[in-house]
Amino acid sequence: MSFLETKTMYLSREKNQSPTISISGDIFLKVKIRQAFPLSFEGKFITIFDSDDQYLGTIRDPESCDTETLSIIQEELDWRYYRPQITRIIAMDTRGGNSWFSVETSHGSTLIEMRDLREGMVELSPGFILMTDKDGNRFEISSLENLDKRSRRLINRLI
């Protein structure tokens, strides 16, 4: 892992374009920003890749970056790791190996369809559940205790 010095690098972006990074005077267009450890070190260890997916380096702590760079990092991570919070389970059904969950989330009501429940729903720590639908979209239950009693009962049948 190669760490980038935040004093010698910065991100910029033209309106509605992918970010550009300058590292010690070298310019890379259309860079990709990813979280190295999105679940265990959220907000730390930000990896940068060029337009050909070649690794450029890692920002250890984005808080040490200038304001514009930090803002671009946060926008890109919010877009890439969009994970609505499930606030209520309305209904669920399983047929032929597929599972459907009608849920309310922090971004409205939706239907989550999973092809394989064992792969699509993972309890990462006690009470913290990550659900991934058939299209790769992620939804999260950050705490089972925050769900209503009926929702907890439905989800507890599966974990």
Secondary structure elements and their pairing?
Layout: E1 9-12, E2 20-23, E3 26-28, E4 32-35, E5 46-49, E6 55-59, H1 67-80, E7 86-95, E8 98-105, E9 108-114, H2 117-120, E10 121-125, E11 128-132, E12 138-141, H3 149-156
Antiparallel strand pairs: 1-2, 2-3, 4-5, 5-6, 7-8, 8-9, 10-11, 11-12
If strands are numbered along the chain, what order do they take across the biggest sheet?
1-2-3
Which shape, going by the Cα principal axes?
Answer: elongated
Spell the H/E element sequence: EEEEEEHEEEHEEEH
Name the helicity range.
Answer: 10-25%
Biggest sheet details: 3 strands, antiparallel
Structural class: alpha+beta
Number of E strands? 12
Total domains: 2
What's the helix count? 3
N- and C-termini, Cα separation: 36 Å
Mean pLDDT: 92
- Low-confidence runs: none
Radius of gyration: 19 Å
Please report which band the strand proportion falls in: under 5%, 5-15%, 15-25%, 25-35%, 35-45% or over 45%: 35-45%
Structure description:
Strand 8 (98-105) and strand 9 form a beta hairpin. The protein has 159 residues and is of the alpha+beta class. The protein has 2 domains: 9-80, no CATH class; 86-156, no CATH class. The longest helix has 14 residues, at 67-80. The protein is elongated, with a radius of gyration of 19 Å. The strands form 4 sheets. Strands 1-2-3 form a 3-stranded antiparallel beta sheet. The mean pLDDT is 92. The protein has 3 helices and 12 strands, in the order E-E-E-E-E-E-H-E-E-E-H-E-E-E-H.
